[in-house]
Design brief:
single chain; alpha/beta; 440 residues
Length: 440
């Protein structure tokens, strides 16, 4: 036997758990799974009161009437409803969408509306056509987790802009734009949720809206207005859309998920004409066309049902739940906690005493059968560990009361531990969680 034959066979290199790891595009490095998603598989159990997910309360919908509408749609228009359609959306629905937006002062032509598979697709498509890797997107702090996920996926850098109880602060917007410009970077757009903000629950003051638009126009920055909650004001107040004040520099995103049915996944974008063309092309390459059946069902609902009355019913349902949550927070939370008082939408933004880390506390809260979303999910820069989002849209008032009672007990225990042992510094997490039903 030769010396070469006597040598042991070379040990094979360790294999990656993912055989395709070297093939992925660089942008996938920014795709991170939500760290709390596994916890919410436990939180979905019936014994856990979930104050986490932003799910609409569909019990208010006229299900029997809608069942008949589905049957008539299949019988009358089945050949069309089950067929491919236009990438831009069904013309009748686009016309009706302009009528919905008119309630917020928007004057629009149906040709400038692009129907999408939920407003999340609209947001993702807008980011896709505007952002190159390294471009800067301005977003409120905190901001919608689904938006942060899209920005990260397209390798954009998120720079947060501070808010207060009256929404985005114009002075903070100016400072952010100046800082980005001084760093030699380019801001592509400002992303804002002006009405009943997700997750902060605040509304941009009407007096600030024109100023924010003027600042962006002067700096050559597009505005993306995301407004899924605009018709859900508890005092029946409808605020003027940013798009109603500036037709050329605002892309408006809307959705039927909060005012009709989220499972149909019908949203839209209203954009300046040239931008609309790019949106249609990008949407076509992603989905070919939005589902015709879903669009025709929404269209029939808008034409045959008292949809404005349905929105009024939703307002009443959610106002009752908001009141239940605010009352429970006053009753059960320990001293040092503060929270927003939304006049619409789905959410309360809670700030806990110094030293409490809401992300670290979440497993202990779920052990006590209550769930929330930590504030870190809504920041791209690792902040938010003293905050949490509480959702009041889905649970009954009685469940909200019980959930907040449990949460108050968890916070009290946490504060007692801090008083005994002190706080443990937490390493900030950079980057947004991927959105899911429990965080969206």
């Amino acid at each position: 036997m030769t010396s070469q034959e006597s040598q042991p066979a070379p040990r094979s290199r360790a294999r990656s758990l993912d055989a395709h790891l070297s093939r992925y595009a660089a942008r996938t490095a920014g795709m991170t799974a939500s760290e709390i998603r596994a916890l919410f598989s436990v939180a979905s159990r019936p014994e856990v009161v979930s104050l986490a997910g932003g799910m609409p309360n569909l019990s208010a919908l006229p299900m029997e009437s809608l069942a008949g509408e589905v049957a008539r749609l299949v019988a009358d228009e089945g050949q069309v409803a089950f067929q491919y359609g236009s990438a831009q959306g069904v013309p009748e629905l686009r016309e009706q969408i302009t009528e919905v937006m008119a309630l917020e002062g928007i004057s629009a032509h149906p040709d400038d509306v692009v129907v999408t598979v939920g407003s999340q697709m609209a947001l993702d498509t807008v980011t896709r056509i505007f952002c190159d890797p390294g471009d800067v997107v301005l977003a409120e702090a905190p901001s919608y987790v689904g938006a942060l996920g899209s920005f990260t996926a397209y390798q954009a850098e998120v720079v947060h802009v501070a808010m207060d109880e009256s929404g985005l602060i114009p002075a903070a917007l100016r400072a952010a734009l100046d800082a980005v410009q001084a760093a030699g970077k380019r801001v592509k757009f400002l992303y804002t949720i002006p009405n009943f903000h997700n997750p902060a629950g605040v509304t941009m003051a009407v007096s600030r809206r024109a100023e924010v638009l003027d600042i962006c126009a002067r700096h050559g920055v597009l505005v993306i207005e995301d407004n899924p909650y605009g018709l859900l004001g508890f005092d029946n107040q409808i605020y003027p859309a940013l798009r109603s004040m500036d037709e050329e520099n605002v892309v408006y995103l809307g959705s039927f998920s909060k005012t009709f049915a989220s499972g149909l996944r019908v949203g839209w974008a209203l954009a300046p004409h040239a931008v609309r063309e790019k949106l249609v092309l990008a949407s076509e390459s992603a989905t070919l066309c939005p589902p015709t059946f879903n669009q025709l069902l929404v269209s029939r609902y808008l034409s045959t049902h008292d949809w404005k009355g349905q929105v009024k019913t939703y307002r009443e349902v959610y106002r009752e739940r908001r009141d239940a949550m605010l009352s429970a927070l006053e009753q059960h939370l320990p001293a040092g906690c503060t929270w927003t008082r939304p006049d619409g939408g789905f959410y309360v933004w809670l700030t806990v005493p110094e030293g409490v880390d809401t992300k670290a506390m979440l497993p202990r809260a779920i052990t006590q059968r209550v769930a929330y979303v930590s504030g870190t999910a809504f920041h791209a820069d690792g902040f938010g560990s003293r905050q949490m989002r509480l959702s009041f849209c889905y649970p009954t008032p009685e469940r909200i009361q019980e959930g907040v009672r449990r949460l108050g007990g968890v916070l009290q225990d946490e504060l007692e531990l801090l008083a005994t042992f002190g706080s443990v510094p937490q390493r900030p997490r950079i980057g947004a969680d991927s959105p899911g039903p429990d965080t969206a």
